[in-house]
Recover the amino acids of this structure.
């Protein structure tokens, strides 16, 4: 089961660069990039931090891909 | 103060240089049949130097930037590189047993080559994963 990420859209809507978001949540820019590109599935803690920083729910950032 | 990005770049550079030195050592040992194609202190010294340089870079960058550079993405890349390097290291035993059994290669050459190849595998895979993640 894979994860669909809406992080890039939400980040851009908030007017943040990858580097600014990374700084705010305490990770590297590369980690933000890999989450946006679906290379890396973030931990629950990081997902919650990202959601909090962007003022949205975790469900607004990520959803499970329907495999039907 | 150095940024987390600078710390990551320094780590990639040191790992790449050390990994390439290990790979060169292994390839040259196998190609020339010489168990020490150049001083073993070069890959070993680069490994020690990497540790010292990264420690100093981390000290200058500060705890927050170092932790950002060693976040969960870093640990995921490192774990993947270790997993693959582990199986490559195991696979080298049967792989090298064939030329050893056929007397195509000397036992004294195989062990330094296998050791440096194991190190090179982890280091260069980590570099590859990290660089690919940035694109």
């Amino acid at each position: 089961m894979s994860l669909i990420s809406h992080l890039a859209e939400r980040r851009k809507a908030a007017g943040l660069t990858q580097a600014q978001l990374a700084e705010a949540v305490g990770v590297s820019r590369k980690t933000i990039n890999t989450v946006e590109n679906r290379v890396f599935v973030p931990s629950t803690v990081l997902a919650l931090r990202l959601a909090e920083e962007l003022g949205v729910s975790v469900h607004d950032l990520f959803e499970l891909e329907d495999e039907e | 103060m150095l940024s987390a990005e600078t710390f990551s770049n320094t780590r990639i550079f040191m790992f790449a240089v050390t990994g390439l030195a290990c790979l060169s050592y292994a390839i040259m040992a196998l190609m020339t049949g010489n168990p020490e194609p150049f001083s073993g202190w070069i890959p070993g010294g680069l490994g020690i130097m990497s540790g010292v340089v990264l420690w100093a870079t981390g000290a200058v960058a500060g705890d927050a930037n170092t932790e950002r550079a060693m976040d969960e993405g870093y640990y995921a890349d490192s774990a993947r590189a270790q997993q693959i390097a582990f199986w490559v290291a195991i696979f080298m035993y049967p792989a090298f047993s064939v030329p050893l059994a056929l007397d195509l290669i000397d036992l004294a050459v195989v062990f330094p080559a296998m050791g440096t190849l194991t190190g090179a595998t982890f280091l260069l895979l980590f570099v590859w994963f990290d660089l690919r993640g940035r694109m």
Helices of chain B lie at 4-32, 41-61, 63-69, 72-101, 107-134. Chain B has one domain: 4-134.
